[in-house]
């Protein structure tokens, strides 16, 4: 009889977790937004995969895009365009992180535009001068297609493909940066 009483006293003596460390119910607005986003996410194999990936990536992306709706819309678009191009969505997030830090209006010193820093000459090459490279869907379609092409051209060598994408073939600073961000921050097993 004494052992259970001592055990109970020992358990009562343990400190309780801080209130801010306890799991909290998601905000109703975020829950509704996530439900709608999951329902519209057509590039996932099932609803559970969509919920898990979107929630995980949304949490990681919060520091760069604080707005729930903007963040989930971007993630859904990244997932769709990456899959269309045969790329891993988490790799595309690492490229965006390195290129623009998620600033859709970013313009490089050489004129590359948008989140994936696409050069505007591609619009003329494709006969689509009306395309807006600061529109995330357009920018991701161009960027993912270009990166996928270079990855195939380099027979799967990610470092060389990233260097081509960045216009720095033969140098490995940029590929190392992207791969580092991918492995340290965005990689999903």
Oligomer: single chain
Q: Using the coordinates shown, work out and report the CATH topology.
A: Lysozyme
The DSSP helix count reads: 9
DSSP strand tally? 0
Q: What spatial form do the alpha-carbon principal axes imply?
A: globular
Structural class: mainly alpha
Question: What fraction of the residues are assigned to beta strands by DSSP?
Answer: under 5%
Task: List unreliable stretches of 5+ residues.
Answer: 1-25
Distance between the termini: 48 Å
Largest sheet at a glance?
none
Please give the share of residues in helix.
55-70%
Rg estimate, integer Å: 22 Å
Question: What is the residue-mean pLDDT, rounded to a whole number?
Answer: 84
The CATH architecture would be Orthogonal Bundle
Description:
The structure is a single chain. It is built from nine helices and no strands. Helix content is 61%, strand content 0%. The chain is globular and about 45 Å long. It is mostly helical. The chain has one domain: Lysozyme (Orthogonal Bundle).
Topology overview:
Layout: H1 2-13, H2 28-40, H3 47-61, H4 68-85, H5 89-100, H6 121-125, H7 136-153, H8 158-166, H9 173-186
In short, what is this structure?
Pfam families: SLT (PF01464). The protein contains 9 helices and no strands.
Give keywords.
189 residues, mainly alpha, Lysozyme, 9 helices, 61% helix, 0% strand, globular, disordered N terminus, Lysozyme-like_dom_sf, Transglycosylase, Transglycosylase_SLT_dom_1, signal
């Amino acid at each position: 009889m004494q052992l259970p009483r001592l055990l109970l006293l020992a358990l009562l003596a343990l400190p309780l977790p801080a209130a801010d460390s306890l799991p909290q119910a998601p905000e109703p607005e975020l829950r509704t937004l996530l439900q709608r986003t999951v329902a519209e996410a057509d590039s996932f194999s099932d609803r559970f995969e969509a919920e898990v990936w979107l929630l995980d990536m949304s949490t990681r992306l919060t520091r760069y895009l604080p707005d729930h709706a903007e963040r989930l819309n971007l993630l859904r678009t990244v997932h769709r365009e990456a899959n269309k191009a045969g790329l891993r969505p988490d790799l595309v997030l690492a490229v965006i992180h390195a290129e623009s830090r998620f600033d859709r209006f970013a313009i490089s010193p050489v004129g590359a535009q948008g989140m994936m820093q696409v050069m505007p000459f591609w619009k003329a090459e494709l006969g689509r001068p009306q395309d807006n490279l600061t529109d995330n869907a357009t920018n991701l379609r161009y960027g993912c297609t270009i990166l996928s092409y270079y990855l195939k051209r380099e027979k799967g060598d990610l470092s060389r493909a990233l260097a081509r994408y960045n216009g720095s073939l033969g140098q490995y600073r940029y590929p190392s940066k992207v791969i580092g961000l991918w492995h340290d921050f965005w990689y999903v097993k």
